[in-house]
Amino acid sequence: IDSQNSTPKEELLSMWGERLTCEKDVWGVFERFISGEINEHGVKVTTMPWSDAELEPETFLLKDKLAELNRKGILTINSQ
């Protein structure tokens, strides 16, 4: 993982997955970041490769709609 992130590599792999095998795996990481749901390893996705920051409060107003878009493959990277 080559990231601008200060989170330890092992923790990032727990959040994002050690092996992304298809586009839907990536969509799931985005969806879980927005929704706050725990992934299959029991870990909450709290950061993305381009930012250590968690979601801004105004994003919570739209999080259900954003999570749905991400689930469908429309990655909402500018919403965070």
From TrEMBL:
It comes from the Eukaryota. One of its GO terms (biological process) is methionine biosynthetic process. GO terms for molecular function: FAD binding; methylenetetrahydrofolate reductase [NAD(P)H] activity. GO terms for cellular component: cytosol. InterPro entries: MTHFR_C. Pfam families: MTHFR_C. Residues 6-80 form the MTHFR SAM-binding regulatory domain. This is MTHFR SAM-binding regulatory domain-containing protein.
